[in-house]
Write a structure and sequence with these properties.
0% strand, Tetracycline Repressor, domain 2, 8 helices, mainly alpha
Length: 150
Amino acid sequence: MNRLWLHKWKPQLDTQFSPTVEPLARIVNYLKLMYQKQAEVKKESGRVLGCPICSVGSEISTRDEKIGAKVREICGQKRCYFESAIRDALAAGSIEPCDPAEKVGGLIGLIEGIISQGRIMNDPEVIRRLPGMALDFLRAKDVSMAQISD
């Protein structure tokens, strides 16, 4: 899991959440990619697999403290990307005033919940609407549908 984080997920997040990308686009692009990945996995394997960190965390973290600690560490690092995007969106006036630390907790809960629903229903289409749901949750201002359409 640590190897995946260091060599695949973190570099991908570094690119997707680059400060050179508009803050809300960072989040929307990430969520679009999550849908695309789950749709590809479903096409290849016949199953929506969801988030591996969330799956491992919810299944094993209470039984194995070492794995639980690693999952929490990775989740905390991932959370920083979203919080940074929310802080930047707030500074740019792209979202309604909020407490970024509090808002990121709700956003991640929304993301994990919807991706888990996609896994439970074995339907990646459940995940397709996530970018729009995230923008609604963040109370984004003046967002064109072009930003969240496929």
